[in-house]
Specification:
Blueprint (H helix, E strand, L loop, with lengths): L3 E2 L11 H13 L8 E2 L22 H5 L6
Parallel strand pairs: 1-2
């Protein structure tokens, strides 16, 4: 499976609805995106509310999703 995100950086799952939909579809159905699929860049306007702790620091959501505790 190869999906191109036309933005910068890593971790586009949380930023790009296009990439998130393709990844979720693959993980739940094993259906891969069409060859040559590109997801457009989505530029962050600021820290995402769902990725902030009550103290305002950024939170890595992966440990919580995996059930391995909170990592900041």
């Amino acid at each position: 499976m190869f999906l191109t995100y036309d933005g910068v950086g890593h971790g586009d799952y949380w930023l790009s609805p296009c990439a998130r939909d393709a990844i979720d579809t693959y993980l739940t159905t094993l259906k891969t995106p069409r060859k040559g699929t590109h997801c457009p860049a989505v530029w962050p306007a600021g820290p995402s509310a769902q990725r902030q702790s009550p103290s305002g620091g950024l939170v890595n959501p992966l440990p919580e999703l995996l059930g391995t505790g909170t990592y900041r």
